[in-house]
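User:
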Amino acid sequence: MTKADLIDEVSRLAELTRKDSEVIVETIFDSIVRSLRVGDKIEIRGFGSFRTRQRKPRVGRNPKTGDRVEVPAKKIPFFKPSKELKDLVNTGATAPAAAPPAAPVQ
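Assistant: Predicted structure:
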């Protein structure tokens, strides 16, 4: 699924114009990027969490020439899926919109 597909899906499901859906999707992505830039962790319950990890500087190799290359330290974005998301992906089931609470067994 591409960003354009996601925008179309939001537009269809929320019955919004494509332009309004694009603003919503862009705002969500921009908010995630802004939070990661300042080092915040984003947690979306039932989906997963986003955070950054620090990579140490290291010496790499140019695969073509074999020369040593200094690779600087950097932050990388990292996504950890929730247990619910893992279960949904592995079972192939779709998530219920709002499951009613289970009745007590007597």
